[in-house]
């Protein structure tokens, strides 16, 4: 019975943790792009994003991470023989990378607050894809364990994930270019009227 409780709360922790990670970097993007706004909007937006980032990181994302890790330890304690499985070693490697990503986001949040972040909105959009890739790998390892499929279907799924990431990046670039074009047109209108 303990295993089922640990597993249920492990899944809940994962959902909360990833929801926080996905939204946190999205807030970073908005925070960085607020620099393009005129005053007083720039200061108001940056202050609001800073509050939202701190609350998300400390109240949702970090507790989600802690619940995930604590319940994973509980799961392993009920079935310690799983530690001998190769798939779990790979899964733990990706979880360790994800933990590093989580803490790196905390550092980025502090840099944004101090106005020292040098990441562009486009770079942050690319960074925002990292947890998606890790989530896919971790879930596939947890579901398939040592029988991870390597056939054409698996490669097709992997290809779709890459295609989604590229599409998101291209769409973001299109939006940025459209916005720049609109701003250029707006800037030309007053000059033409004079």
TrEMBL record:
Record-level GO BP terms: protoporphyrinogen IX biosynthetic process
Function: Catalyzes the oxidation of protoporphyrinogen IX to protoporphyrin IX.
Cofactor binding annotation: Binds 1 heme b (iron(II)-protoporphyrin IX) group per subunit.
Name used for this protein in its record: Protoporphyrinogen IX oxidase
Pfam families, per database record: UPF0093 (PF03653)
Membrane topology label: Multi-pass membrane protein
Membrane-crossing segments per the record: 6-25, 56-76, 88-105, 126-146, 152-172
Reaction catalyzed: protoporphyrinogen IX + 3 A = protoporphyrin IX + 3 AH2
A single cellular component GO annotation: plasma membrane
Family: Belongs to the HemJ family.
Necessary cofactors: heme b
Subunit: Homodimer.
Organism: Atlanticothrix silvestris CENA357
Pathway in which this enzyme or protein is active: Porphyrin-containing compound metabolism; protoporphyrin-IX biosynthesis; protoporphyrin-IX from protoporphyrinogen-IX: step 1/1
EC number(s) per entry: 1.3.99.-
Gene: hemJ
GO MF: metal ion binding; protoporphyrinogen oxidase activity
Assigned keywords, A-Z: Cell membrane, Heme, Iron, Membrane, Metal-binding, Oxidoreductase, Transmembrane, Transmembrane helix
Protein location: Cell membrane
Binding site for heme: 10, 91
